[in-house]
Amino acid sequence: MGKYFGTDGFRGEANVKLTVDHAFKVGRYVGWYYGRDHKAKIVIGKDTRRSSYMFEYALVAGLTASGADAYLLHVTTTPSVSYAVRTEDFDCGIMISASHNPFYDNGIKLLNGNGQKIEAAIEERIEAYLDGEIEELPLATKEDIGRTVDFASGRNRYIGYLISIPCRDFKNIKVGLDCANGSSSAIAKSVFDALRAKTYVINNNPDGTNINTNCGSTHIEILQRYVVENGLDVGFAYDGDADRCIAVDHMGNIIDGDKIMYVCGKYLKEQGRLNGNTVVTTVMSNLGLYKALEREGMRYEQTAVGDKYVAENMLENNYSIGGEQSGHIIFSRYAATGDGILTSLLVMEACVEKKATLCDLAKEMRVYPQLLRNVRVADKKAAQENPRVREAVQKVADALGEDGRILVRESGTEPVIRVMVEAGTDELCHKHVDSVVKVIESEGLAVE
């Protein structure tokens, strides 16, 4: 975790934590770094936030001033930028988005030539440049100044690619889409229409300030109500840059990332396409997912929280599917990063191919009650290593046995210890979380 770059790029309130000066300098460094021995080509996409245009222009100025050519996809999804980088011979991709954050935040996500999140070593060099620890970079002059190229055609090719993926069409299936007034507003409906679904779309009228506002994957209750009231067969909600997806079945039940991994993992296994017979998760996935995978004869691996770590594990081991409970799902055969629209298409394919509703496919996985409590502390390491805290955690683990689990971890961005318990009942979750939190407080580790 760097000073500016977290697990999902450089993110913060526009013109407060993330400024146009930052964006210009990121462009300057990226343009210079990739253009040291050739004319660099960088592709840029953005979401629908008002500040995204501001940051786009600042990045372009920095890139072209360093001699790189900047190709503009305009309003598009993060996965489409990843696709363009992988297939169109770009050196790097940049997505301007703060994902599921409110409209006044924004972010800069950098993708390498493979369409994956950029290497930490490069982020560290960019941070050093932002802080003036690297000498000023040379400016391009005369014919070496970079060009700005309209590249809307790249987004259209990505749409065509998505349409080509499912092995069946979705004729007459009533599908609801919540586009979160974000990037998917420009793409999702046309994909489902082309696959012959009866497509019903909400929250697809972005105005620069309504992205993620009471809509999308972080406000799934809106789609739940819409699906039930309109008698739809299934619904999918995306976040601001459409790299995550949460589904809703025809009964209005939430199908989160864990259930999606179960449904799609089992389908891939039945198709003989589950490499290593393994699903990759983070440590925050529900215990119910692991028990369901074991029952179906599938293995799983756990990573630290963040789809970046899931992607690294999948690449290293050539696994087919992995993701997070939040709906970041990676299908390595088709994409290098989480892709919400792709996820919804493959969920649909599983339902159509198996002639079953999403409700039927997902109900095989029992979700264990889960409680997460954040405790603000003065010193995260001291809280984690405190002998009495460790003893309390072990006591809970022993009490739960195989019927639950406890996870205590440090926040990567805040002075917080997260205490999470999964157990057979909500009452047990509360009891065990309370027991650990009380020890943290009694040891004088917690702060107001």
From TrEMBL:
- All residue ranges annotated as the Alpha-D-phosphohexomutase C-terminal domain in the record: 374-437
Residue stretches in coiled coil:
none
Residues annotated with Phosphoserine modification: 99
Specify whether Methyltransferase is a keyword of the entry: no
Q: How is it modified after translation?
A: Activated by phosphorylation.
Q: Which UniProt keywords apply?
A: Isomerase, Magnesium, Metal-binding, Phosphoprotein
For this protein, the record's InterPro entries field holds: A-D-PHexomutase_a/b/a-I, A-D-PHexomutase_a/b/a-I/II/III, A-D-PHexomutase_a/b/a-II, A-D-PHexomutase_a/b/a-III, A-D-PHexomutase_C, A-D-PHexomutase_C_sf, A-D-PHexomutase_CS, Alpha-D-phosphohexomutase_SF
Q: Which GO terms describe its molecular function?
A: magnesium ion binding; phosphoglucosamine mutase activity; phosphomannomutase activity
Listed GO biological process terms: carbohydrate metabolic process; peptidoglycan biosynthetic process; UDP-N-acetylglucosamine biosynthetic process
Q: Which residues bind Mg(2+)?
A: 99, 239, 241, 243
The catalytic activity, as recorded, is: alpha-D-glucosamine 1-phosphate = D-glucosamine 6-phosphate
Q: Which residues form the active site?
A: 99
Which EC number applies? 5.4.2.10
Q: Which HAMAP family match?
A: GlmM_B
UniProt family annotation? Belongs to the phosphohexose mutase family.
Q: What is this protein's name?
A: Phosphoglucosamine mutase
The record's gene field reads glmM
